[in-house]
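B., you asked whether I could sanity-check this one before it goes into the benchmark set. Here's the sequence:
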Amino acid sequence: MSKHLLLCFLFFLSFSQLLLSSCFSFSNSTKICPHGQSLALLQLKQSFSIKNDNDNCEFPSFPKTEYWKEGSDCCSWDGVICDLVTGHVIELELSCSWISGTIHSNSSLFHFPHLQSLNLAFNDFSGSSVLDGFGRFSSLTNLNLSDAGFSGLISPEISHLSNLVSLDLSKNYGAEFAPHGFDSLVQNLTKLQKLHLGGISISSVFPNSLLNRSSLISLHLSACGLHGRFPDHDIHLPKLELLYLSGNRDLSGNFPRFSENNSLIDLALFFTNFSGELPASMGNLKSLQTLDISYCQFSGSIPASLENLTQITSLRLQSNHFSGQIPNVFNNLRNLISLQLSDNNLSGQIPPSIGNLTNLYYLDFSQNQLGAIPSPVNGFSSLSFLYLGYNLFDGTIPSWLYTLPSLVSLDLSHNKFNGHIGEFQFDSWKSIDLSMNELHGSIPGSLFELVNLASLHLSSNNLSGVLETSKFEKLRNLYDLDLSNNMLSLTMSSNSNPMLPNIVRVDLSNNNISGILSWNMGNDTLNYLNLSYNSLSGFEMLPWSRMEALDLHSNLLQGPLPTPPNSTFFFSVSHNKLSGEISPLICKASSMQILDLSHNNFGGMLPHCLGNFSNYLSVLNLRRNQFHGIIPQTFLKGNSIRTLDFSNNQLEGLVPRSLIICRELEVLDLGNNKINDTFPHWLGAIPKLEVLVLRSNRFHGYIGFSKIKSPFMSLRIIDLAHNDFEGDLPEMYLKNLKATMNIDESNMTRKYMGEAYYQDSIMVTIKGLEIEFVRILNTFTTIDLSSNKFQGEIPDCIGNLNSLRGLNLSHNYLTGHIPLSFKNLKMLESLDLSSNKLSGRIPQELTSLTFLEVLNISQNHLTGFIPQGSQFQTFGNDSYNGNSGLCGFPLSKRCTTNEVLEPSQEIEESGFDWKITLMGYGCGLVIGFSLGCLIFLSGKPEWLVWIIDKNIHKKIVRNKRSTHRRGAQRS
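And here's what the prediction gave me:
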C-alpha cells in the first residue's frame, strides 16, 4: 500500500513540475511586448522632449518615458499596461510625465489600435489639436487629455468612440468644438459616466438629452460658453455625484430641481445667470458636500430646508441678491468648514446656532446689512478666517473675538464699532482690519506682541496717543501697515537698528506726525509710503532702494527737494514749503510715472531732461512755484504723458512745438505765466486733448483758421482768458468741439480725470472769482474766452454746444444780439457776457435754461424787459447793471407798455410796424365792444342787420364775378 502511495506522490510531483514549467513558459511568452509596439513606443518617446513646467498636476510627477529602454519588455515600462494574453498595449497612463511637444497626424501614438485607456493629462502638447487619429481607438473606454495644451478644432471623430465611459478634455482653453460637434458627441456617446469639458468652447445651448443619461456620475461643463436656459423640469439622475456649470455667463435658469433619489455631492453654478428663489426642495440634496452658487442672480430668502444638508462642508452663496435674515439652521450643519454669504442684502442678527460649528474654518458675512453679533459664543474652536466688514454692526467689539485660539485673519472694517480695542490673547493673528469704524483710545500694547502679524489696518478711526517706533520691533513679519486718518503722533526711537525688515506698505497719512522723520524701517523692502497730511518738516534720508510710491504732500517740508529713489514711479511733495532749484538727478528716476511738485517755493530754470527722462511719465505737475525760463523743449517720441501742468509760474518763451508728439496728452495747463506766443493751432492735432488752459499769459493775434480737418475733437475745457487775442471769435474751432455736444450722461460712467494715485484739478473763473476744482468730472465742459480783444458778433454755432456747462465771453468788444440759439444750451449752469457792446433784447427763450445758476450780462447796451420765470427769478441786480435800456424785475425801473410788448428783433427787421397795428387793435377793440353791447341791448337793430346783409350780398357778387373771370382766363 505504501508503495502505491509513493508512486502516486512521485507522479504528482512530476506532473506539477511539468505543469509549472508549461505555465512559466506560457507566461514569459505572453508578457513579451510585440516588437512593433515596442518600436512605436520608443518612437513616441523620441518625438517629445522632457520639460517640467506643468505645476497643476494633481499627483506626484516624474518623466515616465525616461525609463523606457530598448531591449527591455515594454509591458514593464512605467505607464504602459499590456493585455495578459495577447501582449497588446491596452493602456497608456502618461499623465504628469513632463512630456512636451506636438502630436502630429502621423504620430506613432496612433499605432496602438487596441488601446482601452489613454491618459495624457498635465503635459504640454502646445500647438497640438485633438486630431482624427484619436477617433481610431475603437476600443477606448477612457480618454483623458485634460490640461495638456491642446487647441484648435476638436475632431468630430471623437464622437465615434462609442465605448467611451470617461472623457476628460477639460482645461484645454484654446480648444473648441465645430458647430454641432458637441451635440453629435452627446448623441453618440451613450455609455458615458464621466464627461469633463470645462474650459472647452462649446458655444451651445444645454442639451436636454444629457439629463436623460441615467449612467452619468460626473458632468463638468464649466466655462464652455453654454447659453440659453437650463431645463426647469425635475432631474432624475440617481448616480450623478458632480454637476459643474459654473462660468457660463449666458446660461440662465432656476435652481435645478433634483428628485429625492439623488446622490449629488458637488454642485457648482457660480458665475452664471441663474436666478429666482432657492426652492425648499434643495433640502433633498442630503448627500451634498459642496454647494457654490456665488456670483449669480438668486434672490429672496435663504430657505430653512438648508438644515437638511447635514453632509455639507462648503456653502458659498456670496454675491447674489438674498435678503431677509440668515435662518437659524446651523445646529444640523456640524460638518461645515467654509460658509460664505457676503455681498447680499441680508439683515438682522447672526443666528446664535452658528457658534456651534466647531469645524468651521472660514466665515464671510461681509457686505450685508447685518446688525448684531451673538454674544457670548463658545464654539468656533477651528475658526481661522472671520470677515464681517461692510455691515451695520455697532457697540464695542465682542470680547470673545480676542480669545479665539485659531483665528488668523479678522476683518471688521466699515462698520460702526466704538469704544477701545481690546487685548489680544493669542499670537496666531496674521491679518487684522478694523478700519472705518468709530474706535477711540490708544492702540493696545498686546497688538505689538503679535509676532506673526503680517497686515494691520486701523485707518479712519479716532485713535490717539503717541506711538514709539520701538514698539514695532517685534513685528518682524509685518508687510502692510495702515494707521491713516487718525490722531496719532509718532516719536522716533533712539535705537538706530532697522525695524520691520519685511515691511512693504506703510500709510500714516492724515495724523499728527511732526518733526523730522528718522524711522529706520524696511530699507530693502518698502515700496509704498504715504505720510501726506501731517506736519513733517524734513527727513534724515530717503534710504528705500525699492520705493515705488512716495507721497509726502501737504506737510511742512522745508529746504531743497529730496531726491526720490530711482525705482520710484509716484512722487508727490505738493503743498509744502520746499525751495531751491530742481536737481537734474531727479531725471535718474527712469520709472517715474507721476511727478507732482506743485504748490511749493521752487525756483530757477527747469532741467531740460524733465520732458524726456522717462518713457512712463504720465503726469508732470509744477503748478504754483516760481520757475522761470522756458518750458522744456524735448519730449520722447512715443511718450505716455497725459497731464502737463506748468501753471502759475514765471515761464516765458513759446509753447514747445515738440508737444505735438505727445499723443496721449489730455490736460495741458500753461495758465498764469509770461508765455509770449500766438495761438498754438497745431495742438488741435492731438487726438485726446480734453483740457487746454492758456489763461493769463501774453498770447496775442488772431486765432484764425486751422488746416487740420477736425481740430480739437476731444476738447471740452478751454480757457484763453486774460490774453491779447483779437478779431472775431474762432467760429471754426467752436463748431468742431464735438466733446461738448450731445453728451448722453445716462449712458456714461461718471468718473474723474486721472488715475489711481493722482487726479487732475483745474482753476475756473465764476462770478469773477477763481475757484479750484480739485477733481475734474468727465462730464464737465466750459469755455472761457474772457478779457481779450475779441470783436464782432457771437456766432450762432455756440448754440450747438448743447452739453456746455459754463460759457464766459465777458470783457471783450462783442457786438450784436444775444443769439437765439443759446436756448439750446440746456445744460448751461453759468453764462457771463458782461462788459461787451451787446444790444437788443434778452431773448425770452433763455428762460428754458433750467440749470442756469449764474448769469451776468451787465455793462452792455441791452434794452427791453427782462424775461421772467424759471431761473430768471433768482438773479439779482448785479446780473443786469450797466444796461440803461433794461427794465423790469429785479431792477427798480419799471417797463412802459411799449417796452413790455416790444417783440423780438427778428420780427422788427421784417418791416412790419407794430405801433400802428397796436393803435388799430386798440380802436377796433373799443368799437367792437360798444357795438356788441348795442346789439344785446336793442335786440336785433334793423339798420345794423341791413348793413351786414348788404355787405354780405356785395361780397357774394364780387366772389361770383371773380370766379367767372378766372374761369374765362383759364379757357
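One thing to flag: The chain has eight helices and 64 strands. Otherwise nothing jumped out at me.
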